[in-house]
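Sorry to interrupt, but I need a hand with the structure work. Leave the record below and I will have a look:
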Amino acid sequence: MPSNNSLPTNPSQPPKALIIALKKVLRPLVRLLLSFQITLPYLIELLKEIYVDVAERDFRLDDKKQTDTRISLLTGVHRKDTRRLRSQEKDNEQSPPAVSVGVQLVSRWISDQNYLNTEGKPRPLALKVVPNSDEPGFEHLVQSVCKQDMRARVVLDEWLRLGIAKVSDNNWVELNTHAFIPSAGLEEKAFYLGMNISDHLEAASQNLLENKPPFLERCVYYDGLNDQAIKELKTDAEEQGMALLKALNKKAQALKAQDQTPNKDNQHEETKKPLQRMNFGLYFFSQPGETSDKDQ
């Protein structure tokens, strides 16, 4: 939550630089909304709900009850709408089951030595048990994460639908990607849109508002590049970026396993610090540059 000292002294005149940034942020969002026929009136109603929720959660006064009147004053949302929005049932924002299970399975497949080849890459896994083979197959992978809660065939059918995996003629399952990024499935792709853009924007927003050490947020930007240069840079970004993501995934798996291992020194701790989550991502984007009048 931003401190009061971070807020502009005159809210009716927000910084011009921030308005310019907001227009850039909103432009691709509006393009996406229009692609799904989400109109301005629908968005306004959605914004009212979010304004009220953020004000209620993040802008409380110490030892004072948050009221409809104060939230209405903070947000500009009419008090009648504020009261209605505060009393309505919240939407379920949990991740789709295919995502929560799929992320764990892919993470193990690309980091556990049992499922890697000699080059350290995820090897094809036998769909069924191979006679006289000690190498664990796809069913073993699924059971190592899901125990008996989900059958391997159910997971595979969903992965085939999403484009995460493919099956060869001799019943070997191959991973199509080194990260759980569905090529199909609107629900799954929309979940990652929300999570990744939200976390990136949270990091950038807190860097703008807070005085504490900033979150990592860096980029490499160039214009004036030809098609071949873009192609080479995109390839390098994918290869080197995936190598970094795989290394972080492997370390995170090890640290989480280490933290979950019983330790005699902390078995009797009455209070523990709350667990945290992290998100580190990569993106690559390119488009034709705008041509000025003098270049025509």
Summary: The beta strands are 125-126, 165-167, 172-175. Confidence is low (pLDDT under 50) at residues 1-7, 292-296. The chain has nine helices and three strands. The first strand starts at residue 125 and ends at 126.
